[in-house]
Amino acid sequence: MSLMITDECINCDVCEPECPNDAISPGEEIYIIDPARCTECVGHYDEPQCQQVCPVDCIPLDPERQETHDQLMEKYRIITAA
């Protein structure tokens, strides 16, 4: 699954620099995650780094975008090959 940022986001800016895939960016009101670039840090880390640093715990799995570990790894390979 890709991750998502909920409206509990306080725009603290700690998640954006932690994303190794540059999937997090400022949205109109809160930060957003590009599901095409989010691999839940598969290929980089054991756990999603944005979730680790978020002070308000507002970055859950996106139930609309279910992906297996293998699919996330393939996405990682595509992203890092460019």
UniProtKB/TrEMBL annotation:
One Pfam family, please name it.
Answer: Fer4_7
* Domain 4Fe-4S ferredoxin-type, first and last residues per copy: 1-29, 31-64
Q: Which residues cross the membrane?
A: none
Check the UniProt entry and state the signal peptide residues, or none.
none
Q: Which PROSITE patterns match?
A: 4FE4S_FER_1, 4FE4S_FER_2
What InterPro entries does the database record attribute to this sequence?
4Fe4S_Fe-S-bd (IPR017896), 4Fe4S_Fe_S_CS (IPR017900), PSI_iron-sulfur_center (IPR050157), YfhL-like (IPR047927)
Q: Which UniProt keywords apply?
A: 4Fe-4S, Iron, Iron-sulfur, Metal-binding
Instruction: Quote the PANTHER family the UniProt record gives.
Output: PHOTOSYSTEM I IRON-SULFUR CENTER, PHOTOSYSTEM I IRON-SULFUR CENTER-RELATED
Q: Which NCBIfam families match?
A: di_4Fe-4S_YfhL
**What is this protein's name?**
YfhL family 4Fe-4S dicluster ferredoxin
Species of the source: Halomonas dongshanensis
